[in-house]
Write a structure and sequence with these properties.
This protein has 120 residues and is mainly α. Helix content is 83%, strand content 0%. The chain contains five helices and no strands. 22% of the residues are buried.
Amino acid sequence: MKKRNLPTILSLLLLSILALITLVNFLYINNVGNSLTELALAISGHEDAMRLQHYWESQTSTVSISVSNSAIEKLTDAIDTLVCYAESGRDEEVTRSIALVLNAIDGIRRLERISINNIL
């Protein structure tokens, strides 16, 4: 191997590693989003809301590595509000809160999607 090819090989290797990390991150965030969506859509009472909250709390530290704090806080606030309404039995508010949670989940996914807008 010639020494002048070394920078090219290293550049390609680093680019490949970066692409792999980006793909793994996308898949992880998408998986968490899918799980959160399933849990949110299955809410029928306080226990289901608590299950959603516990799952989100278990994922927050890992998700925060790549997702902005404002998106995390938006989802956390929406889930906390949902839990409060589910605990009080206010079904109308629970339905609205589920919609807000789903919107916040979509916001996290949108930020991590592989697209030209996210690159620029």
